[in-house]
Design brief:
alpha+beta; Cytochrome Bc1 Complex, Chain D, domain 2; SH3 type barrels; 3 domains; five-stranded antiparallel β-sheet; two-stranded antiparallel sheet
Length: 269
């Protein structure tokens, strides 16, 4: 009987260890981290972690990359003297998920980089014309304070990316889709259909931003259907819409512009 009890006890211990390991893995899932980042961080640091009007970039900051996960945990937990509020109230699990997701954003910001100082191979002037003209990038993306805001700010996008990596991102925009860029279509009980970028969600509501910039806070109880797509709002036909030379010029513009200091408010560029 003693041996049976010991054996049963060991089995229970193994099950508890496996359960804890599984729970920890679940807590580190990109989806949880993405949701909490959108909920608590994106308002100041941007949906892609590359900064906004209220706070600096996290995804492209060398000082952030140099910190350990525990350092970042303490910053989120306790806040900073520079003005960031503490987020201890969201719990350790959510904080660690946010830190884990931030590391993913950092990796995406430097993945595919040809070099930190990639050469400019194309015609920057032509690329600028394409960005604000034919390619319609400025409809959704901000650049040096000009353009749309439903998609990520591209002011610093080319700083750590090479020409080929940028062209690939333009022609295959959904190959590394992050949850903050995912398009969702919902239908209300009143028959209205709303399609937009998923900005936040929980068990009770969805927060969508439509292409006109408007936010729609929708209660799940008022919806009859929620369809999650595997795409962003980014057009998927740039490979045919733009010639190889035009793609090269557009990528060159993004690289060159990322090395240009931001204009001072009130001054022309």
């Amino acid at each position: 009987m003693g041996l049976h009890r010991i054996g049963a006890f060991l089995v229970v211990c193994v099950i508890m260890i496996l359960a804890c390991t599984y729970a920890q893995a679940q807590n580190q899932s990109p989806l949880l981290g993405a949701r909490r980042f959108l909920q608590f961080c994106a308002g100041c640091h941007g949906t892609d972690g590359k900064g906004g009007d209220k706070a600096a970039s996290l995804a492209t900051s060398e000082s952030v990359r140099a910190r350990s996960d525990e350092d970042l945990f303490r910053i989120v937990h306790d806040g900073t003297t520079e003005g960031m509020p503490p987020f201890a109230q969201i719990g350790e699990t959510n904080i660690r998920a946010v830190v884990h997701f931030l590391r993913m954003l950092e990796g995406q910001s430097i993945s595919g980089s040809d070099t930190a100082q990639a050469p400019v191979k194309g015609d920057v002037g032509s690329g600028r014309s394409l960005y604000f003209g034919k390619a319609k990038c400025s409809t959704c993306h901000m650049m040096q304070g000009k353009g749309g805001f439903i998609a990520s700010d591209l002011t610093a996008y080319g700083r750590n990316r090479g020409n080929d990596a940028i062209k690939q991102a333009i022609t295959t925009p959904d190959s590394q889709l992050v949850p903050s860029s995912r398009v969702v279509t919902v239908r209300t009980r009143g028959g209205q259909s709303v399609t937009g970028v998923l900005r936040n969600e929980d068990n009770f509501s969805l927060d969508l931003q439509t292409e006109d910039g408007r936010y729609h806070l929708l209660q799940r109880s008022g919806l009859t259907d929620v369809h999650y797509t595997d795409r962003s709002l980014m057009p998927r036909d740039y490979g045919t819409l733009l010639s190889p030379e035009e793609l090269n010029d557009l990528a060159s513009f993004l690289i060159a512009e990322s090395r240009t200091p931001r204009a001072v408010a009130g001054q022309s560029q």
